[in-house]
Amino acid sequence: MVDITPMVPQGVQVIHGYGDGKFRIGEVSHAGPVLVRPEITQAWDVTLDVAIAELDLATLAPILETEEPYQILLIGTGTRQVFLPPARRAEIREKGPVAEVMDTGAACRTFNLLLAEGRRVAAALLPVE
């Protein structure tokens, strides 16, 4: 597992590692796809072979339907970057955050970096085997 732990403010969870189909977030191991927010991580109800272009906004509801919107939503697409259609990015933007799509490793590192900067960020991550 790759260790990517940054210096971040207390009270938020960081992504400490990823690989082998799992994530280590806030010192807890999570298997499979996850939705990560600074204060909580939960299973993401999508299949591993999900077509990113077909992502349903309902699966992102825990992130998109918060009282205070997130500034950025990082979408980690597994071992390689898969682009999100512009219309879907616009739908996400209408709910608040800017959607940034990248491979899962980059999304994990970017999540930690943005947390360290004090940004309001969330991530939807597909695991890397």
Present the secondary structure layout.
Layout: E1 2-3, E2 15-19, E3 22-25, E4 28-31, E5 34-37, E6 40-43, H1 61-64, E7 72-77, H2 86-94, E8 98-102, H3 104-116, E9 121-126
Parallel strand pairs: 7-8, 7-9
Antiparallel strand pairs: 1-2, 2-3, 3-4, 5-6, 5-9
Summarize model confidence as the mean pLDDT: 90
Assess the beta-strand content as a share of residues.
25-35%
Distance between the termini: 10 Å
The parts where pLDDT drops under 50 for at least 5 residues are none
Bulk shape: globular
Radius of gyration: 13 Å
Give, in spatial order, the strands making up the sheet with the most strands: 6-5-9-7-8
Class by SSE composition: alpha+beta
Helicity range: 10-25%
Q: Helix count?
A: 3
**Count of individual beta strands:** 9
The largest β sheet comes out as: 5 strands, mixed
The run of helices and strands is EEEEEEHEHEHE
Keywords:
single chain, 129 residues, alpha+beta
What does this structure look like?
This protein has 129 residues and is of the alpha+beta class. Helix content is 20%, strand content 31%. It has three helices and nine strands; from the N terminus they run ββββββαβαβαβ. The chain has helices at residues 61-64, 86-94, 104-116, and strands spanning 2-3, 15-19, 22-25, 28-31, 34-37, 40-43, 72-77, 98-102, 121-126. A five-stranded mixed β-sheet has the order 6-5-9-7-8. The chain has a four-stranded antiparallel β-sheet with strand order 1-2-3-4, with helices on one face. The model has no long low-confidence stretch (mean pLDDT 90).
Describe, in short, the structure shown.
The protein has 129 residues and is α+β, with helices and mostly antiparallel strands. It is built from 3 helices and 9 strands.
